[in-house]
Amino acid sequence: MDAGDDANGNGGASGTGGAGVSRQPGRAPLAAIAESLQRERRRAGLSLAEVARRAGIAKSTLSQLESGTGNPSVETLWALSVTLNVSFAQLVDPPRPRVRVVRAGEGVAFAAEHADYVATLLASSPPHARRDIFLVSAEPGTARESDPHEPGAIEHVVLSTGRALVGLTDDPVELRPGDYIAYPGDEPHVFRALEPGTFAVLVQEHH
Amino acid sequence: MDAGDDANGNGGASGTGGAGVSRQPGRAPLAAIAESLQRERRRAGLSLAEVARRAGIAKSTLSQLESGTGNPSVETLWALSVTLNVSFAQLVDPPRPRVRVVRAGEGVAFAAEHADYVATLLASSPPHARRDIFLVSAEPGTARESDPHEPGAIEHVVLSTGRALVGLTDDPVELRPGDYIAYPGDEPHVFRALEPGTFAVLVQEHH
DNA sequence: GAGGATCGTTCGTCAAGGCGAACGAAACGA
DNA sequence: TCGTTTCGTTCGCCTTGACGAACGATCCTC
């Protein structure tokens, strides 16, 4: 991984973890951490000093970590994971190849259920790519509640204009233009426009 | 760009979390680790001394960790996760739904090579699913030309506000709010804002 | 109650993590 | 060529994690 992702993902841990759990390699994956740190930093196009500054650690420390020397504390690694926008688990867990199966016949059939909610499919996922991109146009009124999708699904929303309450039904977040949110698509979630002319970009990932 | 991310991640949460970006729990979850350690140990019905012995660490150390004091190194936590048969991620991440929010203006801003172009990484891709989501903020002026990425890469752009010329360098297309374009990322492409305050959502896929 | 065994915490010591500063290497420009 | 800037590594110093031993508390049995 890069990193991240998890956005979903991996979420967690869970996810990941899951798997990983049980049999972990006896040795702590310091080398893997070193690799991940450097890869993610380069990926972001940042210098060692810059990342260290943002994470609030010494660049000498980061240098040692990237070279595989050292055994970082949880706080140090956490700060780096936050700065690099990578899930903590992903830094530590050896990136295992995950084979995912997309079952035949699966597909998110999408239709606007409510008049005050319109989603336009911009890019549909080919058989093996698993992401759909929607442009969502919504007006204040009924919220659009979605039943959970397949396990592991993740949704990303970037609000373009207006205001909206988005996220898990339990705990929605108010978004303003430019705000971004990601949440597990396999739990009940909601999209409720708070202003007329609310637009958003929705990226759905299925696994 | 790419980056990673997790944006979503879960988060980072998952772990990681997030990153800097967003606000994950800014603080390292030492309290959560403490709780998890004790819960898992009790679940296994083992004494503190026994777990310490199996993990090869001092029981005093484990005692402190379970009390929330201390900031364990990766090796120490790893040894405990193996002994308790719990994924490392699970120890660190509180097993909760991960919702990640990146507010406008937050996030890892990619510095733009040009002053009039800023891309913010919202979600980065995991190792095998590769997609990065960026919020692009651009001002009229120099165009932002990108060198080709890996073969097979595809970019999707949804314009939120303003106007922009987007697409292959040879044949860019003028986008208005709500417009969408997709083009091969492995050919030279360009993003040129035509109005001040132009925002767009960029989804990169690599293969 | 005294003795023993087990539990988890606290204390003193030592090694290692983390830091700032200095250093060499490489890339520009004058 | 020299000076400047930026990169990443290396070098002492100090703080802190980790250890082992001792300690009080609890729960037994005799």
UniProtKB/TrEMBL annotation, chains A, B:
<feature type="domain" description="HTH cro/C1-type">
    <location>
        <begin position="37"/>
        <end position="91"/>
    </location>
</feature>
<keyword id="KW-0238">DNA-binding</keyword>
<dbReference type="Pfam" id="PF01381">
    <property type="entry name" value="HTH_3"/>
</dbReference>
<dbReference type="InterPro" id="IPR050807">
    <property type="entry name" value="TransReg_Diox_bact_type"/>
</dbReference>
<feature type="compositionally biased region" description="Gly residues">
    <location>
        <begin position="9"/>
        <end position="20"/>
    </location>
</feature>
<dbReference type="GO" id="GO:0005829">
    <property type="term" value="C:cytosol"/>
</dbReference>
<dbReference type="GO" id="GO:0003700">
    <property type="term" value="F:DNA-binding transcription factor activity"/>
</dbReference>
<protein>
    <submittedName>
        <fullName>Transcriptional regulator, XRE family with cupin sensor</fullName>
    </submittedName>
</protein>
<dbReference type="GO" id="GO:0003677">
    <property type="term" value="F:DNA binding"/>
</dbReference>
<dbReference type="InterPro" id="IPR011051">
    <property type="entry name" value="RmlC_Cupin_sf"/>
</dbReference>
<dbReference type="InterPro" id="IPR014710">
    <property type="entry name" value="RmlC-like_jellyroll"/>
</dbReference>
<dbReference type="InterPro" id="IPR001387">
    <property type="entry name" value="Cro/C1-type_HTH"/>
</dbReference>
<dbReference type="InterPro" id="IPR010982">
    <property type="entry name" value="Lambda_DNA-bd_dom_sf"/>
</dbReference>
<feature type="region of interest" description="Disordered">
    <location>
        <begin position="1"/>
        <end position="27"/>
    </location>
</feature>
